[in-house]
Amino acid sequence: xxxxxxxxxxxxxxxxxxxxxxxxxxxxxxxxxxxxxxxxxxxxxxxxxxxxxxxxxxxxxxxxxxxxxxxxxxxxxxxxxxxxxxxxxxxxxxxxxxxxxxxxxxxxxxxxxxxxxxxxxxxxxxxxxxxxxxxxxxxxxxxxxxxxxxxxxxxxxxxxxxxxxxxxxxxxxxxxxxxxxxxxxxxxxxxxxxxxxxxxxxxxxxxxxxxxxxxxxxxxxxxxxxxxxxxxxxxxxxxxxxxxxxxxxxxxxxxxxxxxx
Amino acid sequence: xxxxxxxxxxxxxxxxxxxxxxxxxxxxxxxxxxxxxxxxxxxxxxxxxxxxxxxxxxxxxxxxxxxxxxxxxxxxxxxxxxxxxxxxxxxxxxxxxxxxxxxxxxxxxxxxxxxxxxxxxxxxxxxxxxxxxxxxxxxxxxxxxxxxxxxxxxxxxxxxxxxxxxxxxxxxxxxxxxxxxxxxxxxxxxxxxxxxxxxxxxxxxxxxxxxxxxxxxxxxxxxxxxxxxxxxxxxxxxxxxxxxxxxxxxxxxxxxxxxxxxxxx
Lengths: 261, 265
Description:
The complex is a heterodimer. By secondary structure, chain A is α+β, with helices and mostly antiparallel strands. Chain A has helices at residues 2-35, 38-66, 70-77, 86-111, 183-189, 242-251, and strands at residues 118-123, 128-133, 136-142, 145-146, 149-152, 158-161, 166-169, 172-175, 179-180, 202-203, 210-215, 218-221, 232-234, 238-239, 257-260.
């Protein structure tokens, strides 16, 4: 019985050996075939390159990830200067406590930046506006802002029609505003520029019922070109539709903050 | 005789292939090695610049566990935002922890956009965490913008000579959209790469593909050339963000040229 078992094992061994030899021979044949074939050579070369790149990647991974940061280990174990005992744990707790305290203070300070009174945010890229009170959104809608047109006049004088980004404040609230046309309004239409007090400078009922002055001649006002709301078409002012303008006029006060981006 | 010549020509052709492949292999190996060396250099440089100070600093650092480092990072983030709130200009806040990118003006959040996908240098994880906390504790300043879309879509209009010459303004074509791929190079060595994540055709994404490929090639080239010249390669830490094209455009247009940026991770 034992002899039979031995024989079986020997047979199995030789069988595996033969199978191994066969597989090796087959692989060798296949490899030689590949070597004699153009595509095969290219395939082999690609395989060599892939192997080299893989080796480099594994090496780099080991260098960056596998090898621990020695300095960090030294520091965290204290390099023998601070033993990891109760004193260290106490110190760590103290530090944690002070950091948590600092964080609470900083968060409190951060919250003070958000105005508690209504303020308006104007998005000049999308031509949208948002009225907030604290972090609560009161109203949003379409508006029109600067067209980014650079108007070049005859005497090489130029104007850029863009809404200035940054923070501004409402300086004045005006009802039934009248537009006093600046020089560029005439130059743009090819009309000779009149004197500052000339009647052609004044246009009525084009700015809507209200206007809010932001300084430097920029206004938030109404428009007669309601179809163009949501597009960058103005000379720098912010245009709103009648309802939105009324809401903004009633909710924002002189001194209210205006954020333009 | 003719057969022999044919064989010789074939052999010559084969050797050409071989030389070309050798050359290709050499280039690949060279650049791969330079990249590995660069990474090792960068890791060391970050540790030296922001992590290891004097001996006393080392002892101080022994107190910092992973939890306290996390608190320290949060503190740095808030301090950074408070510091930026002092300025008059629009600032950028990138919070990888909350997957949110925000525009802030004087501490007020004026625009908030979700980060759809992000990836960052492995160096951020594998480097000394204390050093990374220190690096992120001070807001970075944008040194340059590079992108596929204009920062200000300016149009030039020549004033008409008289009323007959005047052309009424036409409403701009809002259907035309540029691909949104740009990067902000910060003074602390961090590069924030922001790109759109809208599914589009391959052709529509071509400018973005060219932009990203150019960036990678130039970076590899810079690293290799500085190593060849015996110089230490620049510390470059990448943060790649994918946002909605609309948000990407808004952020790009809103940020001033020297914008300040705080990163939380």
